[in-house]
Amino acid sequence: MVNVEAYHHLQAALSPSNTALIAVSKFKSVTDILTLYAAGHRAFGENYVQELVDKYEQLPKDIEWHFIGHLQTNKVKYIAPFVSLIQSVDSLKLLNEIQKQAVKCNRIIDVLLQVYVGDEETKYGMDATTCLELLSVWEAQSTAFSHVRIIGMMGMASLIEDPTQVKSEFIAMKQLFEVLRKQFFFGNDAFKVLSMGMSGDYPLAIEAGSNMVRIGSTIFGHR
Ligand SMILES: *Cc1c(COP(=O)(O)O)cnc(C)c1O
Prior knowledge:
Number of helices: 9
Bound molecules: pyridoxal-5'-phosphate
Strand order of the largest sheet: 7-6-5-4-3-2-1-8
Strand content: 15-25%
């Protein structure tokens, strides 16, 4: 069941820092999404292509859909016509495919680069070196990426209970974000979104400099 009260509390807690809230609705029903929609919410995050397409078709068209799961290149075409932000770009191959599909749809698609820090390689995303390599190619061949706009970075902390460890990973991601912003975007606001923080760790993420959180279970209950 949707906890609208928790949603309002969350919005109140996030508004002083101007942190954007993406409501993660994976595995949740269209009815649950509509409940939050009726409370005024418009930005939703989904992890699976088929589920996102089904929901997109059934739900109001002013919803801003964020793709936050691992995206296979052969599935980009299904979400390219309508997705607002693809938060999970983890390879140059995927970036190339998004460009190709965006051209076909005659759209410019905003994306985030998904990175991980720390030594757990269990997660999707790129390590810092791979991310720097991707941006070097992107910079050298910028005309080849006319229809994708890299507007920031997404990261997840390891599933570790120790808040000190989680916090230090968020700080490392914020540092990487600033390095990328300086090196490839001349420190300007074209590269502006730092998406980190979920139900269990978002206060730590915001302390470390996140400006977008992706929250599921706090709003929609456990999956
Ligand atoms: C599921 C998911 C979330 C939301 O997780 P909660 O713990 O339910 O808030 C956030 N980000 C990503 C990438 C996810 O897959």
